[in-house]
């Protein structure tokens, strides 16, 4: 699957390459959203400045190859996103957060992913976990497992459905057979180089999809080597409605989330100038942030469709 380029945080913002969701596929396991960005020169793009914005019904997974991003959220968490370390934020019933690249960052390069929460977990309290996975290595490869189990290593990070997330660096022309759960479907996002997987070649920012059924996933690097993210999980088995930053189950539910966010960030019909002026509510107030919150876009003139 090939990506489309979109601006992160609105027009004239940092461009990202999005491979999930798209027409051909909405989810891989519970993975429902995948943005890939960089390497970008912050001097040219301005870096990442994503002001407070809301989420429901999902977990965000932040993974960097290069740079540094400051995270703040309305559950009181303040953390740095660093290369090779995962930050997982659980939105649950509702959270808001901001993401800003630091002044010391000259190059920004990474991936932002979302995981849809199953119905029984989507009303859970907001939460946050950070984990620095150890590097594991073998003949011609090295990797870091940030979610689930792969390469003989298991991440302790909590998820609400079975998931796999790992970075894998492969030397030129090396073939790596990965022992995986045969009930999982998998996605291979190429960051650098190219790989051959399941009968096809994937190039940078492309996402290869592999259906369930085989306990061995064979990934072969091209003559320049490769760096990829390996993602997986059992088919989600639920229909979702995903619009803007919300994951719900019905059109009416998502419309309600939008109305609640707009009510928190407006006074007398105008957007508040500072995130500290945001009213408390479902999405809380981002601690220590003073950027102007991001208003929700207009809804389309049609019912939001379920994704399966």
UniProtKB/TrEMBL annotation:
The keyword Ligase does not apply. It comes from the Bacteria. Residues 167-263 form the Pirin C-terminal domain. Belongs to the pirin family. Gene3D superfamilies: Jelly Rolls (2.60.120.10). One of its GO terms (molecular function) is metal ion binding. Binds 1 Fe cation per subunit. InterPro entries: Pirin, Pirin_C_dom, Pirin_N_dom, RmlC-like_jellyroll, RmlC_Cupin_sf. Its cofactor is Fe cation. It comes from Nocardioides silvaticus. Residues 16-115 form the Pirin N-terminal domain. Keywords: Iron, Metal-binding. This is Pirin. Fe cation binds at residues 53, 55, 97, 99.
